[in-house]
Design brief:
Chain lengths: ~200, ~200
């Protein structure tokens, strides 16, 4: 019986190994050879899937983004408004080892995307999906009275999104001031900003 | 008479040229040869100043950070509290071509610093200076009643700083939603968050 290889699963497996290599050694340290070793494959086994480093880098980022989105989907299922927005934010913020590794992949990806239109498109698509969902939750929050009605939804979303992206970078780069506890407090500042403040008592 | 060379000025000149090269072509595109051409020097003229690409990259980032700080110093001179904080933020946000070029240098620097302790130190030092000044302005703002007294200064500063860093990245990477006008609006959202809200009328 011929051996059946699930090519989609193998691509995922390679991307997952590449993610670990990039997290440890940076994008400059990403070689097909190291990823093959990390995934436990023979040296030439990656070539049919990813002929070049750029294609592997692209698949690695796509994989990271899909992983994050899978977690987001599970986390926001059934939630609305500000609750959903907070759960989303907590999946993007590097609050555990898995998300820190993701941030370590995203950071080098950004600089690569600056000069590779194909990679920039992946990032644009990812951000479009995120901001679309964030806008819906922000509007839901407004309708439910959880979010200040005078806020401009688009600007509030972009400013929160840029906070999350900056925090992703800072959590791996400027660690002394961006521990898990620090990031939790920063998120509460950002979310607290959105809530209507309690009226002064009578 | 022997030719007098101002070595500090020449180093600055080279770093300025390197900044333009990185902004255009990315850190991977940074070569001593290209920077020499950009600065109008002979091919070997850079070696005595920057024997390696890493040293040139380090000098380029230090130069960008010094440039930003020079602008910040001019801009905040005589200002206090929330006014100073806003002026500072406007020098970090990529609101013109010069600051966009700076963001294009900072982004690749971040990912390089992830795996080079020497570069991470430069970034840590830069961020320490910034957060120290931001904290002072935030406290001044509180004392003057411009900033909500119940905010935790450290967390409010870090969350604003991470917003600024994320916006630096987004302004060069995700340009459709981070034009100068968009960034201005996002900054007003962040600063508006800090201000005490008007009490509802009688």
């Amino acid at each position: 019986m011929p051996k059946i290889v699930d090519h989609a699963a193998r691509r995922d497996e390679i991307a997952r190994a590449a993610c670990r290599v990039v997290a440890r050694r940076g994008l400059d340290g990403l070689t097909l050879r190291d990823v093959a070793a990390e995934a436990g494959f023979a040296n030439g086994a990656l070539k049919p899937y990813f002929p070049t480093k750029t294609e592997l880098a692209r698949a690695t980022y796509t994989y990271v983004f899909e992983q994050t989105n899978r977690r987001i989907d599970r986390s926001v299922a059934g939630a609305h408004g500000l609750v959903a927005l907070e759960r989303f934010a907590r999946e993007v913020l590097p609050l555990d080892a898995e998300r820190l590794d993701e941030a370590r992949v995203v950071l080098p990806f950004w600089q690569l995307a600056l000069h590779e239109p194909g990679l920039a498109e992946i990032n644009d698509g990812a951000m479009l999906t995120w901001r679309g969902r964030m806008r819906s939750w922000m509007r839901e929050g407004m309708e439910a009275g959880e979010v200040r009605p005078e806020l401009d939804v688009a600007s509030a979303v972009e400013s929160l999104l840029n906070f999350l992206l900056g925090a992703q970078g800072a959590a791996v780069l400027d660690t002394s001031f961006n521990s898990v506890e620090d990031l939790e407090r920063q998120l509460q500042v950002q979310l607290g900003h959105l809530r209507p403040r309690a009226r002064p008592g009578p």
